[in-house]
Fold each of these.
Amino acid sequence: MNKQEVLNKITSVGIVPVVRIADGGQVLDAADALIAGGVSIMEVTMSSTRPFEIIQNLKAKYGDKLLVGLGSVLNEKVAEKGVDAGAEFIVSPIFDASVLKVAQKHEKASILGSLTPTEIQRSFSAGVDVVKVFPATKFGPGYFKDILAPMPHLKMTPTGGVDLTNVAAFIKNGAVCVGVGTALLQKDLIANSKWEELSALAEKYVQEVQVGRA
């Protein structure tokens, strides 16, 4: 996929699962469950065990059936290793010019963090494809509406505090997609291999995105 196709898929699905799983085998099972539930995207974070190996394994098994990115990227070296492993998008809780430069050099989608209106605009002006509003926990969906009112050109996504109760509201208020961690990839479901339940939960998140867009 080229960068625009990656961004189109992220926007179309609307859900970016944030993966922090120690067992690499469980990541493959979780990917199967997410795909079955209509969420063919995974952001493998640097807090996962052997994240680069996980990305390689996911790409080897699923190819273009699963969009895989690297998350929690804080520096240029990690970004380069993620791209080498097969990451198709790069995510960071912060804005770092060197990380953006790596994404741009390799024509990978960038989802880098900012919080205040000034930071968000500066990140977008620098070339970030989607600004990750982080942490979104304390600000909520209304923050997106407030920022987009005077700056409707921005493309933003929330991470932190996103769950089934507010996905639709974030989307309705202008988020192009949402990042969801343990509210979707619940530890109990993964630890007990409840993959059908994970698929059902993924379907609910997809439905909430559609509610928000309606």
Amino acid sequence: MGQGLLTDGFTRAGGPLACEGVPLAAIADAVGTPAYVYSAGTVRARLAALEAVLAGVPHRVHYALKANGTHGVLQVLRAAGAGADVVSGGELYRARRAGFAPSDIVFDGPGKSADELREAIRAGVRVINLESQGEAELVAALAADEGRVVPVGLRVNPEVTVENFHAYISTGEAGDKFGIPLDDAFGVAAWVAGRPSLRLVGLHMHVGSQLDTLGAFDEAVAKLAALLARLRAELPATAATLTLLDLGGGLPVAYGDGDRGADLEAYGEVVRRAHARTGCEILLEPGRLLVAEAGVLLTRVRYRKRSGGRDYVIVDAGMNDLIRPPLYDAFHAIEAVAPGEAALVASVVGPVCESGDFFGHGRPLPPVAPGDLIVLRTAGAYGSVMSSNYNARPRAAEVLVDGDRYAVVRRRESYEDLMRLENESPTWRSA
């Protein structure tokens, strides 16, 4: 567990695993499996721990919906005081449905459509972070059409070398698709500053996820602070409007297997330096940090078998439910719900018709049997939100636990849901 974080809401107390005050076996019996189970208390504790290290710094935490956009989870975060960070029109819609005010929403993303941008402009979100000259031109035109002056930031690629476990979650190196190249940022800012329908209010960055160290993050902050100082000096009109510095997200969580969690105290010091350098209000966009450890994927054993000298535990969850292990070779701790000594080393796999449908190999477990329950830990981020209907599998239910009570916040899909949007008797047309 990383320094500054509290223990999660999943405990045994000498018996079967429970989420806060609710036994996971009771949830499985009532709701079925596979199911995602989230601890509301853990979400609140993660946000509170982050807020504690930022005390005294003018800031706002905008939760990144892409980590987990389930309505019940969003309501917990909104009630706890978080804003929202969205990267699509659909996420904007979800944030609004969950009760986030437009002034509490930041709109990011590298390829926003005209329709999405128009929706954000009409809603009046706090800031739209631009990622290219072309996007700046489109927003300026849309804003003029709507008769609005739109607050915008520039997402700048600080071009730093990031240390994390997979290339797919690095976003701030030279040549990445994200953001405006550092050498081009001043020119784009000057163009934006000259548009009457735009108001340049900040600079933004996001260098990647699961950052092993804060060195690259601190370096990137310094580059943005230097750019901000130049803009204020050489574009006097921006001196009064440039008041926001958005540092994105990227703090790690401990999935197990020896990896480190976030050092919140050290992170807080970087944020304090950023404010001291710039005088800006600091915006932060954590996602994984707030929800990953708050969730598990609860699944039931279907079969045991042995093949080629390897023991297999086949469960009812599959790669369509949790794609991270085959996509990123990501590690999730796996444990049985019932207590027991680890007497088995097995590959835990799903029922999907793919060799890549696995959750972990060589994992120690009690001698589980068909019908027993196991969990994949730290599954609250990039789990359900990345799930699919591959193999025509209905997506899992989602359950929120708060103290000694629980609620289904997303029902399990039915077979009928799989066909709901398909037209079985289409009307044929000629071009």
